[in-house]
Amino acid sequence: MDTIYFLLPQACILLLAADALTNVLVLNHVLTHYSRRERLLLLARESIFALFSMFALYEAALGTLYVLKTPLCAIQVVGGIAVTLTGMRAILNLSRENSWKGFTSPSALSLVTPIALPLMIGPSWLAACCILIGKRYSFASVSLILVLSWILISLATIILQVFVGGGKEKAKVLLATQTVLGLFATIVGTQLLMSGLQLAFL
């Protein structure tokens, strides 16, 4: 039970930083021409791709931060700013759905994976991952956190994009969900930013 209480908050930070949940409307726009079954299959494939990408990006970020010898306070400040800006973008709905028009056709999605990167685990997720690295947990703990966050991100994304009804009502539900998740992401990002500033100056 103590392990769950330790892992869940860290996984939730990565969950809130996931671009798939702060770009809900954009992802829905990308999948406009797909049936419910096709969406499920595509998102399942993207989720598997995202799992391997998570560990690859974690190792890349770990090596980069080790070489740069970046202090934890700097990691938390930058990560907090990135997550906060992502949350504010989601609240204000500043994402440009039209910029993804090239990926809305089945032929475009069959050869590339535009959802897992950058929508599912984009810059804000990487920033949150760097904060996780700065805490210097064991690799076993980090692996459990990454897998748990992957499960949460995949389930939330599939539920929102596949099982929520279509039409204008779906757009309203997704907009409301994006706004609420953006609010929580902003709160978490601000908390990380303040923690980084406290480490730097206190």
Describe this structure in words.
The structure is a single chain. The chain has 202 residues and is an all-alpha fold. It has one domain (2-201). It contains 10 helices and no strands. Helix 5 runs antiparallel to helix 8 (123-134). The longest helix is centred in the C-terminal third of the chain and has 34 residues, at 168-201. The two termini are 33 Å apart. The mean pLDDT is 83.
Pick out the low-confidence regions.
none
- How many distinct folded domains? 1
Order of helices and strands: HHHHHHHHHH
Instruction: Please count the helical segments.
Output: 10
Distance between the termini: 33 Å
The biggest beta sheet reads:
none
Rounded radius of gyration (Å): 17 Å
Class derived from helix and strand content: mainly alpha
The proportion of residues forming helix, as a percent range, comes to over 70%
Strand content: under 5%
Arithmetic mean pLDDT: 83
Tell me how many strands there are.
0
- The general outline is globular
List keywords for this structure.
single chain; 202 residues; mainly alpha; globular
Outline the secondary-structure elements.
Elements lengths: L1 H16 L1 H4 L1 H7 L5 H33 L3 H21 L13 H6 L3 H6 L2 H12 L4 H25 L4 H34 L1
Helix pairs in contact: 1-8, 1-9, 4-8, 4-9, 5-8, 5-10
